[in-house]
């Protein structure tokens, strides 16, 4: 097991996770620095999403540990872990996961509202992110009334509205055509660079990974830094 590199914001060492007889992670190490964009690549079923879920504290590894700053995720209570996910992490998945009953601006404001911010202030901040993601026009629409590309931009705005320290993105452009996918990646990475958020980006597309500073390949449940990283 290699020790976590110093200066990293989020680091995992020796992660193991099995689902019954299936080994998803088999001693995976990973780290990301503040402001760094890391692409996690690898074949289908190699353990990429499981790694991302362990890093985000969504699932508990069977062995190994995840450190965020000075804190070990395994030593936090469930409430502390959810507070961390709500306050310091942002999530973008392949399919937006927007709340269908809420308008787009209400969706983006939701993480702030859950953190206790008053409606007016939360919606003002949400509008700033919708503008930045070039979808201010859909503010009053519900997710079912907007296009896939618009919905994904709204989902990115919602992930960024709390200015998270780490953004977890799992195939964020997987459901989009290439033009929309590229624009979503541009907007996501620009915003992450401006706020110095770290990004953990799971993708199987080289075109999407090209937005990262460094690529890690997961194979058979182990993560390996690619030689020739672009940093
Ligand atoms: N909830 C689960 N129950 C049982 N097996 C699971 C579960 N989640 C993942 N697995 C298995 O663990 C292994 C790793 O899955 P994971 O989703 O992490 O891979 P992945 O690299 O993200 O795949 P993909 O690129 O296809 O999304 C696979 O063999 C998968 O079938």
TrEMBL record:
Q: What Gene Ontology molecular function terms does this protein carry? A: ATP binding
Sorted keywords for this record are: ATP-binding, Nucleotide-binding, Transport
Q: In which domain of life is the source organism classified? A: Bacteria
Indicate yes or no for the key word ATP-binding.
Answer: yes
InterPro entries of this UniProt entry? Answer: AAA+_ATPase, ABC_transporter-like_ATP-bd, ABC_transpr_LolD-like, MacB-like_ATP-bd, P-loop_NTPase
Q: Which SUPFAM superfamilies match?
A: P-loop containing nucleoside triphosphate hydrolases
Transmembrane portions of the chain = none
Signal sequence region: none
Domain ABC transporter, first and last residues per copy: 10-231
Stated name of the protein: ABC transporter ATP-binding protein
């Amino acid at each position: 097991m290699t020790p976590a590199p110093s200066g990293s914001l989020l680091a995992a060492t020796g992660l193991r996770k099995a689902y019954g007889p299936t080994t998803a992670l088999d001693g995976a190490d990973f780290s990301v620095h503040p402001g760094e964009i890391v692409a996690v690549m690898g074949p289908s079923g190699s353990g990429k999403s499981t790694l991302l879920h362990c890093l985000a504290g969504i699932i508990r590894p069977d062995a190994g540990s995840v450190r965020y700053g000075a804190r070990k995720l395994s030593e936090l209570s469930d409430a502390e872990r959810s507070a961390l996910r709500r306050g310091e992490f942002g999530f973008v998945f392949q399919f937006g996961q927007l709340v269908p009953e809420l308008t787009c601006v209400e969706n983006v404001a939701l993480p702030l509202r859950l953190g206790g911010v008053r409606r007016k202030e939360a919606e003002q901040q949400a509008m700033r992110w919708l503008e930045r993601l070039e979808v201010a026009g859909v503010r009053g629409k519900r997710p079912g009334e907007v296009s896939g590309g618009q919905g994904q931009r709204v989902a990115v705005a919602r992930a960024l509205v709390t200015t998270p320290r780490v953004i977890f993105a799992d195939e964020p452009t997987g459901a989009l055509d290439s033009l929309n996918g590229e624009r979503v990646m541009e907007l996501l990475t620009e915003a992450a660079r401006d706020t110095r958020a770290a990004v953990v980006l799971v993708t199987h597309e080289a075109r999407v990974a090209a937005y990262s500073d460094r690529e890690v390949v997961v194979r058979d449940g182990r993560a390996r830094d690619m030689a020739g990283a672009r940093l």
